[in-house]
Amino acid sequence: MATGPMTDQRTPPGDPDADAAEGVSRQIRQTGGPPKGSGPRAKFDPHLTDMVIDEVTSTGITNVLGRLVRDTRASSGMVIDRAGQIIVFNGQEYRAEMMMLGALIAGTYASTREMAKILHEEHFRMLLQEGSKEKIFTEAVGDHWLVSVIFDRNTHLGLVKVLCNRATMDLIQILDRAIETNRNRPRQQDAGLARITGDTIDLLFRKDDA
Question: Cα–Cα distances in Å, from 70 out to 75, 92, 142, 145, 153?
């Protein structure tokens, strides 16, 4: 599924870590995933399997996340999809571990969704992991994205909740626009691939008159 490169507004140009992370953002990728109608992704819109994060969408997410990280004094923040793919990352702390963190946060959140079903809840919208030094607060952005911030004990949790909820509302608007844009985006076939496929079939099944 096509998408733009991961965006990080604090990363200087030519940063090798950013180069290594480029391509991490593969929004709502479903290759060989669970069957439709089962598992935590069952409610996902099938039209989003090839969702493209364009420059306008990426810039909007970057601005919202940057403001959230700054106002909460978080060390790092990220917007990820439900598969754990990083869409935008902000911050220098935990940069080397960001891909692993994204996957683990998404996995943990998926587990809470299953727990919610057992308790006859639609879902648990927020998730808090608290250690002696660091905390991770995660909130759902619609049915497709998650926003997470990592902060220390000097930041008040109540402030993080309020600001994260505000950021989530902004991100939902961005997500809705991205969904609409992708639904209206014309699907173009790869003419080169079609030609190669046709030539290969002709080669395999042609009759040898010689």
Answer: 9, 13, 23, 21, 16
